[in-house]
Write a structure and sequence with these properties.
By secondary structure, the protein is α+β, with helices and mostly antiparallel strands. It has helices at 18-50, 258-268; strands at residues 82-83, 90-93, 96-102, 105-108, 126-129, 137-146, 157-161, 174-175, 185-190, 205-210, 226-229, 233-241, 249-253. Strands 1, 8, 9, 10, 11, 12 and 13 form a seven-stranded mixed sheet that branches. It has a six-stranded antiparallel sheet with strand order 2-3-4-7-6-5, with helices on one face. Strand 3 and strand 4 form a beta hairpin.
């Protein structure tokens, strides 16, 4: 369970005078400073997790090309992850990880987009995947929509591609509409670094854990990546981590947002990317 903020403390000062009153005031001021510092640290780590992608909302600057995966290579420090070529539907955008959830729609974190939306068709960078057959393929992003203005539960966003990804390259992941039972197997995916505070090598890593376990694995570059169920559904979106003694991870949650995410995917996939919606058939001539 993600660690919450310190419990509120009574900051009222009794009607005392002299040394006792001054001591109480200093104590209250210190408590207020600690709470503010704690909150600043939480939100800071969300920004660091994306490592500058929020500032580049047009996403013209792409991350360096990801090298070929090295199967079986492990990292001791995703932190604690294993380099993998599994799940080719998990790719990357500028500074963040993203996942194909329809042939022409990807999901990522809202903070990767500066919590903004672009509903008009345009050019907003590219989504890159690493097919199992080798190499890499990139697809243009033409619009996007964010669903939050802060880290946490609703830190999710959808992006529409200018062309569908062929099934031969990657199969879209489903969206989870319910939480799995306690103990169910889950996997974090991301292209982030392996040690917090260092740069990413942009290799895809995975880390397995169980539903109900606390994780401390997210690292800059992992933002927007998925936590996937055993049957390949996207359950959570990597959002940030707390600067507590555990470095507990923070996630956007898909099940509470499933309805509006699914509706947007259906709307974007209803007609061709370059053509206007089909014109309805004319009314029949009256007899």
């Amino acid at each position: 369970m993600v660690a919450g903020p310190p419990s509120p403390e009574n900051t009222g000062v009794p009607e005392n005078t002299g040394v006792e009153e001054k001591t109480m005031r200093r104590t209250c001021m210190r408590r207020t400073w600690m709470r503010r510092t704690w909150m600043r640290r939480i939100w800071l780590m969300g920004g660091l997790l994306a490592l500058g992608c929020a500032a580049d909302t047009t996403m013209d600057a792409l991350p360096p090309e990801a090298p070929e995966p090295l199967l079986g290579e492990r990292s001791d420090e995703i932190v604690g992850g294993t380099i993998t070529s599994a799940r080719p539907e998990v790719g990357y955008i500028s500074g963040c990880t993203a996942t194909l959830v329809a042939p022409d729609v990807i999901i990522t974190a809202a903070h990767c987009l500066g919590y903004r939306s672009a509903t008009r068709r345009g050019s907003y960078g590219r989504f890159t995947i690493l097919p199992a057959s080798g190499g890499q393929r990139s697809f243009p992003i033409v619009r996007y929509r964010s669903y939050s203005r802060q880290l946490g539960r609703d830190d999710v966003a959808l992006m529409q591609l200018g062309e569908p990804v062929p099934d031969a390259l990657a199969t879209p992941a489903g969206l989870a509409d319910v939480e799995p039972p306690s103990g169910a197997g889950l996997t974090i995916f991301g292209f982030g670094c392996t040690t917090r505070g260092r740069r990413s090598d942009w290799r895809k890593r995975a880390f397995d854990f169980r539903q109900g376990e606390r994780t401390s694995n997210l690292c800059p570059g992992d933002s927007g990546g998925p936590v996937m169920t055993e049957d390949g559904r996207v359950l959570r979106i990597n959002s940030g981590y707390y600067l507590d003694r555990y470095g507990t991870d923070i996630y956007g949650m898909v099940p509470p947002n499933f309805g509006r995410l699914e509706a947007q995917v259906r709307e974007w996939s209803a007609f061709d990317r370059t053509d206007p919606p089909p014109t309805p058939d004319p009314e029949p001539e009256p007899e």
